[in-house]
Amino acid sequence: FVHVPIPTRNILPLQRANAQPVLSRHPQRENKNQLIYGKENEMVYVFIRINSAGTVLPCSSEQLGTKTWMDQVYKWTKDTGQEIQDSKYCSILENGSLAFKDFGPQQSGIYKCSVSYSREGKRYTRHFHFFVRAYHRPDRSVEIQSAFYSPLCSSATNSIYIHSFLEHLNGLVRNLSCEVFEKYTKCIWPSQERNHSEVRMTVLMFPYGVMWEIHCPPESMSKNCEQDIEDRSKEAYERIHHSIEVLNEFQIREGNLPPLHYKAGSLLAYKVDHCKPGFGKSNTTDGCSNCCIACSPGLYSSLNTVTCATCPLGSYNEHYGKTECETCTRSLVTYHKGATSSEDCVPDISRLVLLLCVFTFGVTPSILFVSVYIVMRLFFPRTKLGKALLHKELEFLHKLTLCDGDTSKKPGEESKRPRKGENSFQPLQAAPNAVGPLAGPEAPPPEI
Asked: Which residue numbers delimit the Ig-like domain (predicted)?
């Protein structure tokens, strides 16, 4: 029997986060009120600590600096095509720079800037692109494991055991501003001790409790939170170790339950990291590999874990830093995980196939055919048969005008065209270090 009130996933060993992460493949660091210049024909990656202010993105490169031209016109947009206006989160300065005031996960995304100007009687335009992500340093905690022997093994008794255990541990560390929470409890029957089960309890101890950022705010650069957390965690664990391993003080005094017997040597502790809901670590993120970064569209995180999970089938997420995915409405489905738009929700083609098969072949062959169809489409989409079924789906939906009323396009082409509000330039799909010209109707700028 397992009692799991607070599920967690993929808890990793504690690592020390970089206080000042690299912002792009060309080393730049985030300091207060620092200018982060763009690079023509290249995406600049920027990581901004949540709730911080002072990061400024000039609509220019380091080579151009503050150079001015005649009739300059600046325009900032996001990857959705929405034009950026002054708000409580950001403002556009007189020189065309974008200044962030209170950066949050919802402000993450691709920011595009274009500056048009006149020179020698001709009109020119330069483009700059920034991929801005919100991040925070990992929350630190200690995972503590212990085992006890008991003649009982059930979810009900596990709940009582862990409740009493948490009360005992919190009483030991409360004056250190630490809090202890259950991760999971399970019992194993039979155990090494005759006629007894082994109750294994795993808890998480937060040095400042779950609201530790009140004591160590993300924007604080003066307080040595790392060392403070290390000292608190060490002292708290020493108290717990002395009480459980040395004195064997923990006793169950609730109801008529039999006592627990501590399994000598079972007390273990590990330092772990946690990300806030809506954030997760990414080992592939260039320049901020140990940061908790806002989950991208198509991903989410709902608990204090270290990874972002993929939106399951039948759901989607269009925004950064979300704690849950939206469910497709009106019985619509998605044929792939990690959907990023409501447009990925389509009619369940298997129902239409079933009706057509029943009408044509009868009930039994139809059920068998549809079962094979669903298995191939959902679990083997990369096989030749799976791809062929997908092509037939698109062709069928295309003819029914469910996907696109323009019959001049071939099936599958509609998935390549930009959605409403999107620009044809898709930097998210490019390699991080890719460099290439951005085509446009304007004349190329002359060399400076």
From this structure: 21-129
Q: Determine the 3-state secondary structure of 138 from DSSP.
A: coil
**Domain-located, residue 212:** yes
Domain boundary among 274, 298, 318: 274
What are the tens digits of pLDDT across the range 166-198? Answer: 999 999 998 888 889 998 898 887 766 667 888
Closest CA to 333 of 317, 315, 319, 356: 315
For residues 56 and 121, membership in a common domain is answered with: yes
**CB-side neighbour CA atoms (13 Å) of 285:** 25
**Cβ distance 307 to 281 under 8 Å?**
yes
Residues 149 and 240 both lie in one domain: yes
The residue that leads in pLDDT, 429 or 199, is 199
* pLDDT of 51 higher than 70: yes
Q: Please compute the mean of the pLDDT values over residues 271-300 and round it to a whole number.
A: 83
Whether residue 7 sits in one domain with residue 148:
yes
- Each residue of 13-36: pLDDT tens digit? 333 333 222 233 333 334 456 789
Domain region containing 73: 43-134
Would you say residue 199 lies in a domain?
yes
Is 324 in contact with 54 (CB distance < 8 Å)? no
Q: Is 116 helix (H, G, I), strand (E, B) or coil?
A: strand
Closest by alpha carbon to 119, among 42, 63, 67, 76?
67
Residue 197: inside a domain:
yes
The total number of structural domains in the chain stands at 3
At 96, the amino acid letter reads G
The model's confidence at residue 217, banded by pLDDT at 50, 70 and 90, is low
Q: Tokens for 236?
A: 């708290």
How far apart are alpha carbons 314 and 309 in whole angstroms? Answer: 15
Q: Which residues pair with 351 in a beta bridge?
A: none
The verdict on residue 439 lying in a domain is no
* 84 and 122 housed in the same domain: yes
Please tell me the predicted confidence (pLDDT) of residue 394: 52
